[in-house]
């Protein structure tokens, strides 16, 4: 019984986290995309120097 309750609370916490993350991504999706591009460019440079 107790384990089931703990599991439910864990699931609800994950759902809340997912909602918050999706909201944040929706608000700053453009900035996140540009930041990922920059990061990928840095990693590409490192890969070429190896």
TrEMBL record:
Species this protein is from: marine sediment metagenome
Region (Disordered): 1-50
Name of the protein in question: Uncharacterized protein
Biased composition (Polar residues): 1-10
Bias (Basic residues) ranges: 14-29, 39-50
